[in-house]
Write a structure and sequence with these properties.
This protein is mainly β. Helices cover 14% and strands 45% of the residues.
Amino acid sequence: MPEHEEIKSYLIISFDNFKPNDQNPQFRDCNVYIDVLCHTDYWDLGDFRVRPLKICGYIDGILNNARLSGIGTFQFGGCNELVLDETLSGYTLTYFAIHGTDDVLPSAHGWIDRKNDDDDD
């Protein structure tokens, strides 16, 4: 919609609460927070839709249960209201980034690159 191109919304992404992963000690699980902020004058999109929740829906459709290499699998943890002041507010999406065994470093398990050993023959 051309009339909405000038409206600015803000996304702030932060990582917090890093903790060891028992199954993959080379990586840390963490929480990922995505703040979706919009000017309150532009929340209403009509038909009972509000801008920050529509943006949150798009983000959740992309990230929920998605596996991102080096970060882990994202699991939806919740969504909370975020109010900065009377003109700027929105929601915070929380995801748990859980590292699986797909991100295991080969050297961490004693795997050796044997192609150089075969060249000596």
